[in-house]
Each structure stands twice: as C-alpha cells, then as structure tokens.
Amino acid sequence: MQAMDIEKVNSMDFGEFVDVFGNVIERCPLIAAAVWSQRPFSNLEDLEKHFFAFIDALPQSGREGILRCHPDLAGRELQQGTLSAESRREQSGAGLTSLDADERLRLAELNAQYRARFGFPFVLAARRSDRAAVPRELARRLRCPPAQELRTALAEVKKIGHLRLADLLGAHPAGL
Ligand code: 2AL
Which Gene3D superfamilies match (predicted)? Predict the structure, then answer.
C-alpha cells in the first residue's frame, strides 16, 4: 500500500477506510469502523489518538478481548500460514519465522504459561524486539502482577498500532 496524506484519509468512504485501517489494531476492524465516524482528522497523531481513545474507553473485558485477537508470537498461526499480512511481516522482521525447533518449543511453553497465568496471550511489538529478546521479555513479564501486565500488554498493542499507522501514512515512526 502506498503512503497517503491525511486529506486522502479524510475523503475515504466507510468501506475504504475500514479496508485500509481495519487491521491497525490486530483483527479488530470494529475499532476502525468506530473511528471513521470521528473524521476529519487533522493529522496522523490525531487519527492515532482516536484509535487509542477507543481502546482506553473499553471495559476491562473489551481490553482483554483485544489482546485475545492477537496471534501468538511464533505460534500455530505462523506455522500454518494464517497470520495477517501485518503480523507476518512483524514476526518475520523479528526473526521469529526462522527459529530452530528448540527456540520454537521454548516460546510455545512460555506462551502457554503466560496464557494460563493471565488469561490472555502474550503481546509484544515484535518490530521493537528480536528472536533473543522475545523469550527473555516473556519470562520477565510472566512474573508481573496481573493488573500491571494488562497495562503493559495494551501499551504494546498501541506500539503495534502506531507502527502500522505510520506505515500506512508514510510517516517516520516516533519512539513510542
Ligand atoms: C504480535 C503480532 O502479531 N505482531 C506483533 O508485533 N506482535 N503478536 C503478539 N502476540 O505479540
């Protein structure tokens, strides 16, 4: 997809907007559908603010639901080739598509422990990480208190969304 300016975004009809921005938050096109009603946007930051405000306004069950829409890092969907295009690019960029069997097994075990402890999948902005850091960070976050971990995980969802939006708008990603 070619980069576009904010006038182009503001001129999109509902269907086009959801096609383009529907996966800014992984597998949550409903958020883009809601954000469309808030146009016009003054710039990329303004557009992003609306995505994040929607997330922040959700009850805890909704925020957990967003986390549950994320595929595991180096999980079954990667093996089966069913990741979204964005997710595949992110996981591949972090080297997660070329793990050896031991690394894959270790991550699968950690992912399972994390899900058993918190009730939602481990989420991390893969583009800000790499194959060595992912299991390290997963092991560290496994020891965090649940309320703190929910906040951390949602901050990662926003980092992923920030980078995806910046890609679509052709902006240089800020250090979120
Ligand atoms: C992902 C994903 O699909 N892309 C990314 O950066 N992180 N998933 C996850 N569970 O963290």
Answer: Oxo-4-hydroxy-4-carboxy-5-ureidoimidazoline decarboxylase (1.10.3330.10)
Tens of pLDDT, residue by residue, the chain (176 residues): 456 899 999 999 999 999 999 999 999 999 999 999 999 999 999 999 999 999 999 999 999 999 999 999 999 999 999 999 999 999 999 999 999 999 999 999 999 999 999 999 999 999 999 999 999 999 999 999 999 999 999 999 999 999 999 999 987 655 44
Question: Residue 140: CA atoms inside 13 Å, Cβ hemisphere, count?
Answer: 8
Report how far ligand 1's centroid is from the alpha carbon of 32 (Å): 18
Query: How many domains, in total, are found in the chain?
Result: 2
Instruction: With 0.85 as the threshold, say if the pTM is over it.
Output: yes
Whether 161 is in the pocket of ligand 1, judged by its Cβ within 6 Å, is no
Distance CA 136, CA 81 (A): 25
Last residue of a domain, one of 15, 39, 64: 64
Report how far ligand 1's centroid is from the alpha carbon of 24 (Å).
12
**What is the Cα–Cα distance from 160 to 90, expressed in whole angstroms?**
9
Is residue 72 lining ligand 1, measured as CB closer than 6 Å?
A: yes
Q: Which of 91, 118, 120, 152 to mutate to test the pocket of ligand 1 (most atoms within 8 A of CB)?
A: 91
Domain annotation covers residue 174: no
My answer on whether 24 and 97 are in the same domain is no
Q: Are 37 and 88 within one domain?
A: no
Last residue of a domain, one of 44, 64, 84: 64
Nearest C-alpha neighbor of 123 from the set 149, 95, 103: 149
